Amino acid sequence: MVSLDGQVAVVTGGARGIGAAIVRTLAGAGAATVIAGGRETDGRALADELGGDAVYESHDVGCERSWDHLLARVSARFGAPTILVNNAGIYRPGPDVADTTPENFDEHYRVNQRGTFLGMRAVAGPMKTAGGGAIVNISSIASHRPYPNQISYATTKWAVRGMTKCAAVELGAHGIRVNSVHPGFIDTEMLDVITDEWNEQVLAATPLGRRGLAEEVAETVLFLVSPSSAFVTGAELVVDGGLAA
């Protein structure tokens, strides 16, 4: 059993889907866990379900001031975060590049890319002061192979992949490990927008022959924030059933 007793974890977009599975897993391992943003009714219900040191905090990942306020509230209640999981993200595929709107592109950038940058920036200082920490950025299989009608989403997930490696190199000397997780097609509401035909094609191309589970992504995150991965930083763990193999 992995123990995160004494750890303070912040999970963005932790109210449902993969984020909620991560929150349950980290809280189950003993971490004080902050559900940062996401649908408020879902986030508060999850915090009530878990009890103990699980709390919901309203949060806008794309806003620098919101990060300042979040870190102040978390530190006042639990102490400085020792774990950050940048999970918040949007996935809104559209037409091809010729007809993708700048608004669609900017919307993905603000949440998926800027939000991840601001999160790392917000916790890096406190983690340096504390002598270490663990950051996990949730990227996507879309940063490893192209899919049509996803230029906005894929661009941000490629950026998350690169930012993770840069931060790992910069922060390693301070005992801060930074890694990324790249889910494939995971059985959550986010995939409700894809067609049945596309889903069948993906399943046929996946060696394990099924969609992944949010809990399987969460267990990967748990490994990366735990002492079990003490010598792992700048790594990319793909959780896709072999789709990108």
Automatic annotation (TrEMBL):
Keyword list, A-Z: Oxidoreductase
Cited SUPFAM superfamilies: NAD(P)-binding Rossmann-fold domains
Record family assignment: Belongs to the short-chain dehydrogenases/reductases (SDR) family.
Pfam short name (any one): adh_short_C2
Native species: Amycolatopsis sacchari
Record bears the keyword DNA repair: no
Name of the featured protein: 3alpha(Or 20beta)-hydroxysteroid dehydrogenase
GO molecular function: oxidoreductase activity
Xref: CDD domains: SDR_c (cd05233)
Keyword Oxidoreductase listed: yes
